[in-house]
Amino acid sequence: xxxxxxxxxxxxxxxxxxxxxxxxxxxxxxxxxxxxxxxxxxxxxxxxxxxxxxxxxxxxxxxxxxxxxxxxxxxxxxxxxxxxxxxxxxxxxxxxxxxxxxxxxxxxxxxxxxxxxxxxxxxxxxxxxxxxxxxxxxxxxxxxxxxxxxxxxxxxxxxxxxxxxxxxxxxxxxxxxxxxxxxxxxxxxxxxxxxxxxxxxxxxxxxxxxxxxxxxxxxxxxxxxxxxxxxxxxxxxxxxxxxxxxxxxxxxxxxxxxxxxxxxxxxxxxxxxxxxxxxxxxxxxxxxxxxxxxxxxxxxxxxxxxxxxxxxxxxxxxxxxxxxxxxxxxxxxxxxxxxxxxxxxxxxxxxxxxxxx
Length: 357
Hints:
The protein is mainly beta. The chain has a single domain (about 40-345), classed as AttH-like fold (Beta Barrel), CATH 2.40.370.10. The protein has strands at about 50-60, 65-75, 90-100, 105-110, 120, 125-130, 130-135, 140-145, 150-155, 165, 170, 180-195, 200-215, 225-235, 240-245, 250-260, 265, 275-280, 285-295, 300-305, 310, 320-330, 335-345. Strands 1, 2, 3, 4, 5, 6, 7, 8, 9, 10, 11, 12 and 13 form a 13-stranded antiparallel beta sheet that branches. Strands 14, 15, 16, 17, 18, 19, 20, 21, 22 and 23 form a ten-stranded antiparallel beta sheet that branches. Strand 22 and strand 23 form a beta hairpin. The radius of gyration is 19 Å and the shape is globular. It starts with about 45 loop residues before the first strand and ends in an 11-residue tail after the last strand.
């Protein structure tokens, strides 16, 4: 949901907060039907949109890395034509977790939507923010990004293709009508990666998950943040769970379990359980639940992070959130214990997401 954040950005000055100037953006509708490849492109007229990739890399020597690559589109004012205007902002967040080196690296870039700075090129299906690029052509996804002096390149392919979250891609985020997003994922991306650091090139295998989500006012006024998880289970299934937290005390739960062929089963809120097991306090004072006990029908998951310190602390947009690689043990009825890996996102623990998404 990943993913992911949102409508607080800084543009012409480094401290200017950008917020939507009117509520008259397009709203997610249960009647909208997603079609591909058209819906890989930006959806102008919606306040917030993101292309969000997370995954795991492994070298021939067995070194493991986690990565995040997200491009956000933030529209500052409604545009009844649905066309991009010169006040649209694109923001990049990318991060690398080096498990062996115990490092967590991150970067942020923000650009106004203008050719050469940040834009979508319909001729090549390329979305870019400065030198950071995402290209989607057929079932192939290619990423190039720089993270604190490290160059990361990914070449990923999906066999299943896009799968729809929620009800036909309409994903509710709360109990009220209209608090929803349009949401689809690529759950089986796999291929190769290359890391270049200090002139040394490392070739790696890659497995990834992609979320594409767009919405306006998806969260209710009392909702402050969310906890989101995706896991690739040892039996080939994929799991997505999220909890949207509220000041009222009643969280909104949702999730989907995907079979290896992509067939989806939506999980009812009553069938999902989430229990926080261990907290970690960030240097900036935020307290995040980094170990969890999760449950869905006939299965129980014990989840922990690769590293506690996987907090995104962007210098410009200044919305801190936890985003990192995790691993888990999964116990299901009549099935031997499985190992799983995935990603976790925790928002609203330092900076409230109220009215931002």
